[in-house]
Amino acid sequence: MEKLSILNFTRNENILPLIKNVYDIADEIVIIDSSDKEIFEKNKKLKEKYKKIKLIYIVPLGCVETLRMYGLKKCKNDWVFLLDADELISSNLKKKILEILKNPKYDAYRIYRLNKFINNIDFGGNAEAYDHVIRFFNKNKVIYRGILHEHPEITGKLFNLEKKYLLYHNVSSKFREYPKIEYYQFRLSFNGLKKELEYRIRNKFLYKIIKKIIDIYLKILRKNENTELSKLEYFIVFYLNSIITFITNFSLVVFINRIKHYTEFIKKLDMFSDDERKIQLKISDEIRNQDGIIKMLNLDNEKTIEKLNKKYKSKKIRGIDLLIKLLKEKVKS
Predict the structure, then answer these.
(1) The pTM is what?
(2) Which ranges of the chain does DSSP label H, i.e. alpha helix?
(3) Which domains, from first to last, does the chain contain?
(4) pLDDT tens digits, residue range 265-301?
């Protein structure tokens, strides 16, 4: 039977419910912890009580996705379940995980996740929405890449589990730092747009057709491919993306939330100085050229993490502000 590592990334969250939820199926629980000193000390005491815990401190970078590959390297077992502090594995799913570990026939499993929005400001109250997530896999068959929320790219066989094997997700309206960095990641030149589509569209023939259409569009309007999209062009691209997401997930809640989010993003495009907008666009293009922030900043490397901890552990700058600083330093070097 294969052994299982539970991998969690946390910052100032209560991880005890997660530990209790998975302790009976986990061989180890790897916690990548970016909490403040007081919370980190509490988690160290939990480690003393729950011997399966491996606790590793990393200076907070604002979005945990940038540390996915580093976290996987810290797991001693090949099979990993990635679990957030606000998620719980259902009893049915736990039984299925143990069954699969006896004789895995696939390299990764896509799971239904039930997202529960409680008193959520975006939806004016309570709401529920399902989505699919790849959280259970052989780490040797997975590479995380992407833009902001870096996604797992499976190099082996993927299987979709039935809806009865649920992952529960309680979505709060707590403040998140993501909006601060979005303008450094989602500003698009036409060249950046083509890179984004190349990553998202697996059908090479379809990608070539869309790329050709963009090239014709640029030629007709006499635009350079390094030109940033206009607000209208942003709206068209984001709206089409929202429709595709709706067709994929059949979730009106997610669709409405995306439209609101993208509309707010477009409204604020001009709030920055010309110099800042140029830097944002340069960073955005470079992230796409490097297939994501992980590769761009070498964040899957042990020495890089050691340097960050040594340099910034005692400094006030942290979270998304620190990540933006690192990205700016990278494009200016």
Answers:
(1) 0.86
(2) 16-22, 37-49, 68-73, 91-102, 178-185, 190-200, 204-221, 231-249, 252-267, 274-289, 293-297, 302-312, 320-332
(3) 4-176 (3.90.550.10), 179-289 (no CATH)
(4) 899 888 999 999 999 999 999 988 887 899 999 999 9
